[in-house]
């Protein structure tokens, strides 16, 4: 049996402010720093060992990984970074508050933008300051790989080649791998591993800073998966993610 651990970064400053983040490179909030330490502690106390780790080129995921590995005293394992593990690009929504956007466009529209599989949020233009083509970390990307917006289907399409060609062969060879990424880039992987339908993936919400363990057979088909930690708190955290685009009475 193979084991693979997925970890969404700890709470970012824009998660805290409830803003669409996407490829914006914001850092962890104080709570996010604590979540990152806690996830590393949980992994260590549960006896997990890793041979290598994979993350995006965004600092909220990179820092979470560093902190978790530090907690495990495994800062020396190889770390591989790829833009293909970046969060889904949220297009022109990047920077907007999710509740304010719901008040302006309606909850249902925000739910579609956040969770529909194939409907893209409004796109940036290449003239926009947020266009990734201006960022030196993406200078080697082909123009067609630079997103102006993405739906989850697009994220699956750019993530899967990296999974199939780079990460999956390592897992298959028995390497113990930790992937530290983002809400939607991990939803893309979970959709693929669990063969979820477009409808099922709509209901999938991944909380920040909680290790998600996959036990896989030799063909990398999931045998089971589970989150490490307090299950009631994890349920609440998943519900809180689902509610981020809702106009709740207290807001
Ligand atoms: C969040 C996910 O990404 O947002 O881009 O706003 O995982 O990097 O914090 P992350 C964002 P939702 O799709 O859950 O609204």
From TrEMBL:
Gene assigned in the entry: gpmA
Keyword terms: Gluconeogenesis, Glycolysis, Isomerase
Pathway annotation: Carbohydrate degradation; glycolysis; pyruvate from D-glyceraldehyde 3-phosphate: step 3/5
Catalytic reaction(s) noted: (2R)-2-phosphoglycerate = (2R)-3-phosphoglycerate
Source taxonomy: Bacteria, Pseudomonadati, Pseudomonadota, Betaproteobacteria, Nitrosomonadales
Subunit structure: Homodimer.
Name of the protein this chain belongs to: 2,3-bisphosphoglycerate-dependent phosphoglycerate mutase
Active-site residues, record numbering mapped to chain: 9, 87
GO BP: gluconeogenesis; glycolytic process
EC code(s) of this entry: 5.4.2.11
Organism: Nitrosovibrio tenuis
